[in-house]
Amino acid sequence: MDELFSLIKNCFLKEFETKSSEYRHELSEHILNYLDKTEDGSFTLNVKGINDTYQRMHTIKGAISESFEKFINPLEFKDNLNVLDICSGLGYNTSALIQEFLNKTEHNFDSSLNTNFKDNESESRLHIDMVEISPYILAVGLFIPSPIDSHSIVQKIIESKLIEDGFLKLNLKKTPIPKNIELNLFCEDVRTTIKRLPSNYYDGIFLDPFSPDLCPELFTVDFFKQLKNVIKDDGILTSYTSSIPVRSGLIEAGFHVGIGPIFGRKRGGTIASLSLSKIEKDLSPDNERLIALSDLGIPFRDANLNLTSDKILDNRKKERLNARSNYKLSSTVKTPVFLGKDIEDEKLKKRVLKNLNQLNISSTSSKEAIFLISPQNKNNEDFTNNSRDRIRKMNSNLQTIVKMKK
Ligand SMILES: C[S@@+](CC[C@H](N)C(=O)[O-])C[C@H]1O[C@@H](n2cnc3c(N)ncnc32)[C@H](O)[C@@H]1O
Predict the structure, then answer these.
(1) From the alpha carbon of 206, which atom of ligand 1 is closest?
(2) Do residues 222 and 119 touch, judged by C-beta distance below 8 A?
(3) Which of 108, 180, 315, 398 has the fewest CB atoms within 10 Å, measured from its CB?
(4) How far apart are CA 1 and CA 315, in angstroms?
(5) What is the end-to-end Cα distance of the chain in Å, rounded?
(6) CA angle centred on 245, ends 335 and 201, rounded to 5°
């Protein structure tokens, strides 16, 4: 990747100096050497993260398929659709959205001309704000073979942005943008962009950073509060991750959360909305307990939206240590999952009991243990009909027990 980025840098410089298109053509010819082909034929990039470990930008099961399955399918299409594409990368999620929009509004795309999107009489309108921090990743999106026709519209926007920001000189992409599609591309840290975006505006938010251990700054409660400000009350936020601190952070910020589509991973992603009616599939009871009752549910925090990823990870580690056995159950051996259950394995039982006893809970079936999980019990008056509120109520029950202990 470092080599590819230095080739891109060189191409930028040469195009600027010579005003010749040959450097871009040359790079397009060699780019496949630096990419991974995924199972649906679309390409992805392996990017270097912390500790020099690499992370692919998309699942190997199919990069463009993942966009359709995880981000587009859960979205509700309507006549005027506003979408925020966070971490737009190579532009796959936006291309998939445009393709689906064009299909739904019966736009004609003449692929034989490759660049001709004909406008139709449709009144529908699509507005997308894309945010990507790296001009080099944008450049990869410009040079990569397009996985679907509509990607050429995104390439046009990327080229315009790279020219506007002084990286490129030549207008080579000829794809016209259909009249009823409005595309903005911001090349900066989305933590900066988010403060300038309109309130109560987006019907959909795609949240597609690298994994939470690599990019926790885009999974913090504080960033989610900003997303809460810009999303409409009935808007839908989609993300591929099923991470417990991420779901916990969304809930702390005020979102309802549920399980999103499964594609290329063992678990489904996450759907969040301020409106309960948009959540089709609740979290599993075990997942709810781990979020509500264990230190694993401590979310990422970044109060002023300016901490480094290392600092955010470090702060969370400290908060977890303090919470463990103090005001949260230890997440070791998934202690909360055993509340209300018998444990046959003696070794496991001993470990679970040790964790429970630290918060003065005598056994998995004690009065306190049953009280903790009562919001999940349909026969109990404490029962709550959705994951977010069950999680909040279980946590509040835990804090009641903790106070009694003091
Ligand atoms: C998993 S990839 C996204 C793939 C992308 N959605 C696509 O369709 O190709 C994650 C992207 O997040 C970008 N990124 C990381 N931190 C960011 C930040 N603070 N603001 C905006 N983009 C960021 C990375 O440069 C990378 O391109």
Answers:
(1) 6
(2) no
(3) 108
(4) 30
(5) 54
(6) 145
Q: What residues flank ligand 1, with Cβ below 6 Å?
A: 57, 67, 87-93, 131-134, 137, 189-191, 208-210, 215, 218
Q: Tell me if residue 292 falls in helix, strand or coil.
A: helix
Query: Residues 132, 187: contact at Cβ < 8 Å?
Result: yes
Ligand 1 atom 2 nearest Cα: 57
Q: How far is the CA of 290 from the centre of ligand 1 (A)?
A: 28
Beta strands 80-86 and 202-207 are: parallel
Question: Residues of the chain whose pLDDT is less than 50?
Answer: 111-115
Q: How far is CA 72 from the centre of its chain?
A: 13
**Contact between 329 and 355 (Cβ < 8 Å):** yes
Residue 25 contacts residue 31 (beta carbons within 8 Å): no
Q: Whose CA is nearest to atom 18 of ligand 1?
A: 189
Structure tokens given for 331: 């997440």
User: Under CATH, which number does the domain 37-282 receive?
Assistant: 3.40.50.150
Count of beta carbons in the 10 Å neighbourhood of residue 195: 10
Rounded to an integer, what distance in angstroms lies between the CA atom of residue 293 and that of residue 296? 8
Q: What is the pLDDT of residue 120?
A: 56
Pocket-testing residue among 85, 133, 154, ligand 1, by greatest number of atoms within 8 A of Cβ: 133
Q: The whole model's pTM is what? A: 0.95
Q: Hey, where are the domains in the chain?
A: 37-282, 287-405
- Give the integer Cα–Cα distance in Å for 219 and 277: 23
Q: How far is CA 109 from CA 78, 116, 148, 150, 157, in A?
A: 20, 6, 11, 9, 18
**Crossing angle, helix 2-18 and helix 22-30, to 10 degrees?**
160
Rounded to whole angstroms, the Cα distance separating 140 from 348 reads: 50
* Residue nearest to ligand 1 atom 3, measured at CA: 89
Q: What are the tens digits of pLDDT across the range 330-356?
A: 999 999 999 999 999 999 999 999 999
- State the maximum Cα–Cα separation within the chain, in Å, rounded to a whole number: 78
Question: In this structure, are residues 401 and 339 in contact, taking their beta carbons and an 8 Å threshold?
Answer: no
